Amino acid sequence: MTRILAIESSCDETAVAITEGGKLLANVIATQVSVHEKYGGVMPEIASRLHAENITVCLNEALAKSHLALSDIDAFAVTRGPGLIGCLHVGLQAAKTLAMLYQKPLIPVHHLAGHIYANEYAGNFIYPLLCVVVSGGNTELVVMKGDLDFAIVGETMDDAVGECYDKVARVLGLPYPGGLPIDQHAKLGQPTYELHPPRMPHDTLDFSYSGLKTQVINLVNTLKMKGEPVRLDDMARSFQDVAIKMVVDRAMRAAKKYAVKQIVLAGGVSANSHLRERMKEESAKRKLDLIIPPLWCTTDNAAMIAKVAERLYERKVFAPLTLGVDPNWRIDEWDKFD
């Protein structure tokens, strides 16, 4: 049985996972959230340094949990992109070093492909399907007609939805990351503040979140200048209703346009309870199969990288040791890395 060791370091989690014949033996994650929380967002230089400190610890813990040695591994997989360039470099250099020392294949994995295939820990894919990828750095609609066949049909023109959540949370005085606290406060509030989605062509499947973010910032500043209190729960609800509605509406239009049989949620924002509820409701109305990833799969982890790497190993998609990172790597170009 093939044994794969996967490394993920695209943002603020250092992660190592080991699989054997598709079975997950170890999935170790060292998060940096408590460090970056004081800055209200990820500090790339600090994140890179912490990855360098954590990578060996994570490797040793994953090997101990799986009861394997590095010499037992058949291939080393790593997130090549997208992500923060310095953070990606740490994981890549570690994987390249191991592949060179043990003379085993090096497998480059696209980060978003990992988030998509994390859903296989919850269910089986039915093609054609629509992937709704929502995270701190990406917001995309991806149609898959088959295995590893990615076609981007909608993407953000500016901010990602998760980035928008973080920036709104900062304005409202909520902790980083902003997704969970906004979701929690929204459950207690009403949509009493008037916020609007951006004006875009009716049939577009693309997203724009910078305008919504600016509306909240301006509204909060106006209220403060007038000496009026910001009703936190109501503001969170008003913002979240608009932000999530954009995702759900475009997802349902894309599902109809491309006649998909299944929808899968992917990325950190897929943990949002309102998004999960709305996707369940709208998918049920249209009799579409829906896979929602378990919460442990929504944050960055290496188990999802290993899941993709298993397929790439079968196809012998291996990279040379001259491989470099690509912080802007597109998912529809996952096999282009020379």
Walkthrough of the structure:
The protein has two domains: 3-115 and 298-333, 2-Layer Sandwich (Nucleotidyltransferase, domain 5); 123-292, Nucleotidyltransferase, domain 5 (2-Layer Sandwich), CATH 3.30.420.40. Helix 2 (44-66) packs parallel to helix 3 and helix 8 packs parallel to helix 9. The longest helix is centred in the C-terminal third of the chain and has 26 residues, at 232-257. Helices cover 42% and strands 18% of the residues. The protein has a five-stranded mixed sheet with strand order 3-2-1-4-5, with helices on both faces. It has a five-stranded mixed sheet with strand order 8-7-6-9-10, sandwiched between helices. By secondary structure, the protein is an alpha/beta fold.
Detail the topology: elements first, then pairings:
Layout: E1 3-8, E2 13-20, E3 23-31, H1 33-36, H2 44-66, E4 75-81, H3 85-102, E5 106-110, H4 111-117, E6 129-134, E7 139-144, E8 151-155, H5 161-171, H6 179-186, H7 210-225, H8 232-257, E9 262-266, H9 273-285, E10 289-291, H10 295-298, H11 303-314
Parallel strand pairs: 1-4, 4-5, 6-9, 9-10
Antiparallel strand pairs: 1-2, 2-3, 6-7, 7-8
Helix pairs in contact: 2-3, 4-11, 5-7, 6-8, 8-9
What's the count of strands?
10
Low-confidence stretches: none
How are the strands of the biggest sheet laid out side by side? 3-2-1-4-5
How many domains?
2
Helix and strand pattern: EEEHHEHEHEEEHHHHEHEHH
